[in-house]
Amino acid sequence: MDRAFDYGSKGWGFESLRGYDKTTKRMLQLNDIKKLLYKHQPTAVFERITMGIAYYRTHISTQDVDLNVNFEIPVSDMGNADFNSTMEAKYLIRWIVM
């Protein structure tokens, strides 16, 4: 089972995992989430590194959307780049976990 859909362990409903747009009454797609990250520029917070994967998380809250966004970054992808304890979430877009 994909960790992103293990709602029991996180206590989240499906709406908070994928994001639900109250205005359009539909689930957010990956491109919608990317647009929100660029528009609202939230900060991603480092959580932990486990088994070669770094975990970051951010939250986007607007009038229409209340969304938790998770990122899983393989340590092998980091190379020589700097990954700080907090950083702009838009820089982690390629590692969004749906």
Provide key terms for this protein.
5-stranded antiparallel β-sheet, single chain, alpha+beta, two-stranded antiparallel sheet, 98 residues, elongated
Question: Can you summarize this structure?
Answer:
By secondary structure, the chain is of the alpha+beta class. The protein has helices at 7-10, 14-18, 30-40, 75-78, and strands at 20-21, 26-27, 43-50, 53-61, 66-74, 86-88, 96-97. It has one domain (13-97).
Rounded Rg: 14 Å
| Number of alpha- plus pi-helical segments | 4
- Number of E-state strands: 7
How many strands, what sense, and barrel or not for the largest sheet?
5 strands, antiparallel
- In spatial order, strands of the major sheet run 6-3-4-5-7
- Beta fraction: 35-45%
**What is the helical fraction, as a range of percent?**
10-25%
Domain unit count: 1
Please explain how this structure is put together.
There is one protein chain. The chain is an alpha+beta fold and 98 residues long. The chain has one domain. The protein is built from four helices and seven strands. It has helices at residues 7-10, 14-18, 30-40, 75-78; strands spanning 20-21, 26-27, 43-50, 53-61, 66-74, 86-88, 96-97. The protein has a five-stranded antiparallel β-sheet. A two-stranded antiparallel sheet has the order 1-2. A hairpin with a 4-residue loop joins strand 4 and strand 5 (66-74).
